[in-house]
Amino acid sequence: MKELIYRDLYLIRKNLLITFGIFAGFILFGLIGILSAKYGNIAKYATDKQTPIEVMQASLYFGLIGGCIVTTGVEHIFSLIKKDYEIHWHDYLSVSGKKSEVIVGAKYLIITMLFLLGLGIGLLGLRLMQVISGVESTDILHSGLGRHEGPLILILMSVMLLLVGNESVLMQYIYKGKGSKKADAIIAFIIFVLVVGVMAIYFILEVNENAKQWVLNSLKYLSAHVAILYITPLVFAVLMTLACFIISVRIVKKEGKRV
Q1: What are the residues whose beta carbons fall under 8 Å from the beta carbon of 156, sequence distance 6 or more?
Q2: Which DSSP category does 213 fall into?
Q3: pTM
Q4: Could you tell me which residues come within 8 angstroms of residue 233 by beta carbon, excluding any fewer than 6 positions away?
């Protein structure tokens, strides 16, 4: 399997470098905000002492966003699968004696590696910003989660990106790398539901004080059992990835029988 992983990483190396370049850009923007709030114009012209601190706290989240940018690298995998079908590399692997679990597993393993790498880099980016700024991440969204808010946002956003990535890879195997309006519609629908869902929840909480208070009370309760908030999305990510992997393997096995 490692030969397939090396091959895939080599083919998407330029795309990954661009992704890491964008990540570096977010880190740079965060550093600019922190340095300006600490030594530059924001510190010089701020009308109160709290403003520079709030700017530095907000800048911490650039590290987390950068981690999510790294996770978006999963999109290069389903593009790679499409090319494998187009040049008949996938057909070659199917008759080469390699097991379907190995062929498919290489792709999903890279996706998992990028997911974990995004989480790790996001947390390191956050810690880097904290060390430079001298402030801790707090309730910017007023969730009541305190210092756990930033890492939990990173995990949830990364899991959402992983969901889209896994579904996209599965669609490529279902439609054998061929362009399909139905597959595109399914992926677009998933993205639409995720984005609109988050926006709808935010809007409801803004206009409905009772709903907002209920959510805050629930988060306050869960903050006493914060491990649940970390474990639940990660367990969901594992189960979702395994489900997509198993379905993809079954699809590829059927292809092998017809070759």
Answers
A1: 233
A2: H
A3: 0.81
A4: 155, 156, 159
